[in-house]
Write a structure and sequence with these properties.
elongated, 3 helices, 6 strands, alpha+beta
């Protein structure tokens, strides 16, 4: 599977529910990876081009923005020379639990809670 979309905290066999619909994460990953790589890449190219920003992917392969990246050079402030490298766009999709505090609770907190509930 391509790795230009990052799915943080999600495994392919995890299951997610939206109302009455449930899906394996792999199904969502596959759909997003296939569709977004070309369509989003083309949209980025078109929008930049309309703003007179010419960032051409090699051979008009629009998924290059996400896969291998685009060859470029960068001149950073306080840097004496141009540095060669690649511009690569990463997109992340992540699940953020509603009660993050519950997930981050330490074992000591759990023991304290049990003791307090017995009092």
């Amino acid at each position: 599977m391509e790795n230009y979309f990052k799915f943080k905290g999600l495994a392919e066999n995890d299951v997610i529910e939206f109302g009455k619909y449930t899906y394996r994460i792999k199904k969502i990953i596959d759909a997003l990876t296939k569709k977004l790589s070309d369509n989003l890449g083309r949209s980025i190219y078109d929008h930049c081009h309309s703003k007179e920003i010419n960032i051409y992917p090699p051979n008009h392969n629009f998924s290059s923005y996400f896969n291998e990246g685009l060859d470029c050079q960068m001149l950073k402030i306080a840097s004496p020379d141009w540095q060669k490298g690649k511009l690569k766009i990463n997109i992340s999709v992540e699940f953020i639990p509603e009660s993050i505090e519950e997930e981050n609770k330490s074992e000591l907190d759990t023991v304290r809670e049990v003791i307090n509930n017995q009092s």
